[in-house]
Write a structure and sequence with these properties.
Elements: E1 2-9, E2 15-24, E3 28-33, H1 40-55, E4 61-66, H2 71-75, H3 100-112, E5 117-125, E6 131-134, H4 140-147, E7 153-156, H5 164-170, E8 175-183, E9 188-189, H6 191-207, E10 221-223, E11 227-230, E12 235-239, E13 245-247, E14 252-256, E15 259-262, E16 267-272, E17 276-278, E18 283-289
Parallel strand pairs: 3-4, 3-5, 5-8, 6-7, 7-10
Antiparallel strand pairs: 1-2, 2-4, 6-8, 8-9, 11-18, 12-14, 12-17, 13-16, 14-15, 16-18
Helix pairs in contact: 1-6
């Protein structure tokens, strides 16, 4: 059974959200993309899931997919809506009587809040590598869902309020973000990362016994919160490690002029800037230590 339906936020220029619902009953899974309009890899993955489920029946349960959550922001391939410039992923559960983005957040929250699992698809920029973002050090149900996704790295979230997955996690729903390379400034899709994420979502449904086929057991590595490594001077930055690479404390991440940029701890380099001119304070890399929790 498939049902496609549209819900509208009424305003001077209405926003229409297209939801795709497959199957019925539990477990109930909710996939969303495009909460930030320019984050195209996640939107592409969500659309691929819809295409797959249109051809492949579920054994049990239901999957609801919202490929483009922030239609107005998507139209200009930017993070926020031109209606009010609010960051949609900072205002959940929203307000039905608020601005267009606040009303939109509330509508999405109403569609998602009854789910048993939520996976929200985002992009971490064109210099990054894929990771799952969750409150895995704080909530067992968040860690459980993170461990079921075949994304190699799981990062502990800083817990910023108003994000869909944060608010859902706090209510007891297993919820995560998957951050994927690509996105702004031109709606770039990283096809390799998209394929990995797509397969991870299909494998999740198999682990939940919602799809036919053999489920693989992922073994992601868990990390703590991301930290920014910034330039201490002006000059040319030359990277020495690839995004997603494990790092050792004091390993050379790159060079800035005659100085080496060193890793502050053992962990992973999630993002590494490509060779470029930089100025003091510019971001060179984003790194995360191994989680203090159980690996």
């Amino acid at each position: 059974m498939k049902k496609t339906y549209t819900r509208t936020i009424e305003d001077l220029m209405p926003m229409n959200l297209e939801f795709h619902l497959f199957g019925e009953g539990s477990p109930r899974v909710f996939f969303s993309g495009g909460i930030h309009g320019g984050e195209a890899t996640g939107i592409h993955v969500a659309q691929r899931v819809v295409e797959f489920l249109e051809k492949t029946p579920l054994k049990k349960g239901s999957v609801k997919v919202l490929p483009v959550a922030n239609v107005a922001a998507f139209r200009r391939l930017q993070r926020t809506s031109p209606y009010d410039e609010l960051d949609l992923n900072r205002i959940f559960p929203g307000d039905p009587e608020g601005t267009p983005s606040q009303a939109l957040a509330n509508l999405i929250w109403e569609e998602a809040k009854d789910a048993d699992y939520i996976v929200d698809l985002h992009c971490c920029g064109i210099w990054g590598s894929s990771y799952t973002l969750s409150l895995h050090e704080d909530f067992d149900h968040a860690r459980q869902l993170s461990s079921m996704l075949a994304i190699p790295r799981v990062i502990q979230s800083g817990g910023t309020e108003g994000q869909l997955f944060i608010e859902a996690t706090k209510t007891g729903i297993p919820a995560v973000i998957i951050e994927l390379p690509g996105g702004q400034p031109f709606g770039i899709i990283d096809l390799e990362a998209a394929e990995e994420c797509y397969q991870a979502l299909i494998n999740l449904l198999r682990q939940l016994d919602m799809l036919e086929g053999e489920a693989k057991t992922p073994e992601p590595v868990f990390y703590g919160k991301l930290e920014e490594v910034r330039a201490k001077s002006n000059g040319v930055f030359l990277p020495k490690v690839e995004p997603g690479a494990p790092i050792k404390k004091d390993e050379v991440i790159g060079t800035l002029g005659d100085e080496s940029v060193l890793a502050p701890f053992d962990g992973v380099a999630i993002m590494v800037r490509p060779a470029s001119y930089v100025f003091r304070g510019s971001g060179l890399a984003r790194v995360a230590p191994y989680s203090s929790g159980k690996q």
